[in-house]
Amino acid sequence: RIPDHACSEPPMQARRLLSAGFDMDDDVDTDTEDQTPDDVEAQGHQAATTTRPQDTGPPKASQSQLRTEFGFCIHENIYFLPCTEPPSEEGPNHYFSIEDQYVYCPFARDFGPFNLGVVLRFCELMEEKRAEFPSRKIILHCPMEPEKCTNVAFLLGSFLIQSLDKSDGEAASVFNAISSHQQGIFLPYRDATNRPREFGLSLESCFQALRRAKSLGWTRLDDEL
């Protein structure tokens, strides 16, 4: 008979799989001799990028509606354009980048997300641009790099929630559709260490947290601290 204290905690490999989002009843090889830290990191990436079904939010747009010559439509005249080279700013549309304006300073191998102060400043920036260019397409472009695309998507989704009062499900559905259209464009966030990632933080989870913070009044700019 196995002593009761021997069952109080799963073995190390089981804890890694549980933290990566795996069900121990799944058909997963838990032999530590066959799995490396890189294997665990890859499994964590797969689990982190899997999102639960949304109860709210508009239906996903078709690929022909989603991607246009101006990029991915986020909301009305607001577009997200990942590109290999900066687009020409000539013409009637307003192109801009935030690459030099908002820079995430990593502790280790982390690359985001931005803090709440950056989120609120970005929302103010977008509100100013909507007021300045009400009848023009506002196109936010960024380099075709997954880390930078993820950070821009996080800020745009935060703008949908904070300024346009969209739900976290509606914000997530926009970027889930983009991710389905262009595989690998977004990455899950990771912890601030140099060790292999054993779990990931999805954009959807970030949007849920921001929506919760907004409901608690933590994102109101007119409150005195």
From TrEMBL:
Residues 23-41 have a biased composition (Acidic residues). Residues 1-63 are annotated as: Disordered. Residues 74-213 form the Dual specificity/tyrosine protein phosphatase N-terminal domain. InterPro entries: DSPn (IPR029260), Prot-tyrosine_phosphatase-like (IPR029021). Transmembrane segments: none annotated. Coiled coil: none annotated. This is Dual specificity/tyrosine protein phosphatase N-terminal domain-containing protein. It comes from Cryptomonas curvata.
